[in-house]
């Protein structure tokens, strides 16, 4: 569930060159309806042998957090802390988000990705930006391309930005997409509310006042992404999303019925099967920095298959862009060293969009970049 893009293998190793598209290179057009007519996928989508998907992998034991339980504030923080110190993934059920809203969001996502390529390209993402339509990452990279297309748009929880999503769809795709805007505005608002509830539990699990992180993210500047992973004639050669850690703070993912999400835990890839009643939640790099490294932002990826398209919806919770990211004093008082420098989300977002292809080392590389360049906040 990357907020950004894909890259390296899970091994901790020297950073490989980031394969940016050369200025004189013509980007490949990712049109799966045409590419699937070929016997072999283009070389740009073929991943190195050590990064190709595994055939048989175990299922990850991910805890379920019941948000309707009266004991949720007692037991849930302990369970969350155990999961987040190991791999950063858990599931939330009885979350209070309307099933009809989730279903409608999935239905409209399918309608969008079923459109002709030219129609989707009206929302084409511009270079260096994090939002818009992206057919793979062909406009930015030339190797290890993901077998997917996405539509990303911004959401702001500030009172002065109450129609951010609605306006995006109408302004970018036209008034005929007004219903899309209304549904995804409602969906993002529901995700923002859910994320603030989860932030209360994360605070308790870290021994911090339950209102601390909720207040920190109350006026969030977040990103919503719709993901479409088309069927692929050679799924053993490519990946839907390469191994990465999410640079954002928290990801709330809803999957359709097709398997594909994998997490790297205990030196092996493990799957998280779809569950229509649950949201998959995972810690991102920014929250790992907020916890001073106590909670982990874990490597994960998405695989594709030959028979079925897979779709998912990811809400990436991010702080307000000018908010300074640093651990609360309650955490720092118990630790001897700071693991990461102070930064703002706008700095981190710019780094991942313009300077670095997201991988397992993104936060460490960004921290070194901040220190080396003495970037003021």
From TrEMBL:
Residue spans of biased composition, Basic and acidic residues class: 11-24
GO MF terms, alphabetically ordered: gibberellin 20-oxidase activity; metal ion binding
Name of one Pfam family that matches: DIOX_N
Single biological process term from Gene Ontology: gibberellin biosynthetic process
Renumbered residue ranges of the record's region Disordered: 1-24
Ranges where the Fe2OG dioxygenase domain occurs: 219-319
UniProt-recorded name of the protein: Oxoglutarate/iron-dependent dioxygenase
Species assigned in the record: Arabidopsis suecica
